[in-house]
Description:
The complex is a heterodimer.
Chain A: H1 7-17, H2 25-36, H3 55-79, E1 134-142, E2 145-154, E3 158-165, E4 172-173, E5 177-181, H4 183-188, H5 197-200, E6 206-213, E7 218-226, E8 231-233, H6 237-242, H7 246-252, E9 263-265, E10 273-281, H8 282-294, E11 305-310, E12 316-323
Antiparallel strand pairs in A: 1-2, 2-3, 3-4, 3-5, 5-6, 7-8, 7-10, 7-12, 9-10, 11-12
Helix pairs in contact in A: 7-8
Chain B: H1 3-10, H2 14-36, H3 39-56, H4 66-88, E1 100-102, E2 109-111, H5 112-121, H6 124-134, H7 140-147, H8 151-171
Antiparallel strand pairs in B: 1-2
Helix pairs in contact in B: 1-2, 2-3, 2-4, 2-6, 3-4, 4-7, 5-8, 6-8, 7-8
Amino acid sequence: MSRDHEPFTHLIEAWLDDSDDHEDPETVLNRVIARLDATPQRPAWWPARTTGMNNTVRFALAAVAVLVIAVVGISLLVGGRPNVGGPGPAQPTASSTPPPTPAPTSTQPAIPTAGFIGLPPPGAVSSTPEVGELVDDYFVPQAGYRFAGYARLYADGRLIWSMFYPVNEWSNSTGYLEQRLTPEGVDLVRRQDPLKLHELLPSSAWADETIRPYVPSRYAACHYVRDAVGPALTLERPEMLSLLPATAADLLSGQETEPPVDYLVPMGNDRDVVADCLALTTEDARSFDEALRAAGIEPDDRYVFQYELGGPGETTLVIDLEPVFPDGTVNCSDCG
Amino acid sequence: MDRELVTRAQQGDKEAFTRLADGLTAPFLSVAHRILRDIDLAEDATQSALLNVWQRLPQLRDPDRFEAWSYRLLVRACYDEGRRASRWTSPVRMLPVGESWTADGSGTVIDRDQLERAFRRLSAEHRAVVVLRHYRHLSLDQISEALEVPVGTVASRLHYAVRELRSALEADARPAETKVVS
């Protein structure tokens, strides 16, 4: 524990200490206890993590695990089960069947080509259900790098993820992809690299292992201003709208803020900017894109649909068109 | 935190969990209240976090990390409640505000309403860092572990948040200008 001694932080501490009215922990505790029986614990994936096992048991479990993995691996190689690659962008529907694609090698999984950056192809079916409970979201490390992509795991079994590649260059993004796990599979996912889950999970973990594009139901237009150093500030909405072509401004005008919390554009140190995001239906997002293109403003689509316009002074107004995830949040897709 | 209680609760011992929860509820509620600025939301977040702790305890790999891990679930519950409230409900009930307030004997008079408004303009992520640092008095390393973000990010968020609060208080005394976020 430590304290800062700068006078202003003393003010903050005093203010925080002073606002404890109306707290009633006993009522909350009673509510929790009342719901315990109806709230089953989620089983641990790896029994050796639990306590009370001696080394002999641990080694025996490890040996069994190695044997199981070997048997599963061999059966998968024979069966050619993985569906990496998936359908092209023109068929991103939840009901399409997986195409026959070769299995990736275990050392170098194939980069999925199913995804898209930005808007879905016309006619694409949105991922269902529209709303989902987020179980976990995590950065995906890979090959010694701390960060190679994002993954979001939902209670309904959806695993939505994207990866940068080549991992040491971050030149491209797969776009957001989706696979479907069983409830058992949701419990088994432990922040692993999605490209390796095929090797790590049993077939019973998958409801549909096919890698498909994640097709959102909504988009968010997130704006901030970049100067010569990086993200610098967020304009008030009327000023931002005044910089857009009239048709595009009309589409954004009056839209609700999405997500309500923030869209953090990190640049390190004190350069982080909280962008302002406005929610759009997919149809409105498409119209917004068309309005900007009609004005000669083409998006950069390597990581996210990102439009750049003239900002105040020497700055650039940046607008990212991001998918809204089932839990209602938006991720900064080109932030690493 | 009692390691044996954690271990027993991991194995499904409800009595052990109840004792753990008894020790967690008050500090959880205080932290959630300060992040969310609304007691009803804070109670919901605390309840949700504690039930999450119970559900996921078997998956906790190192019982010695229970405290940081449990705070991670609490902060996530706060994020969720904050989002839900912003999307589906009417404006949240404010904490008591309004009276002028002298802090730490320095002679500086701060209007609590100003600080409240400035704090509410921060993102939930920034509020969480401020509360864990300046209310729970956790170190940057402890906050980093609790939030699962690098220490540098914690320092950055803290620096940004404090600067925003200070700027907002100063700006309240001046005519409105374009809001500079960073």
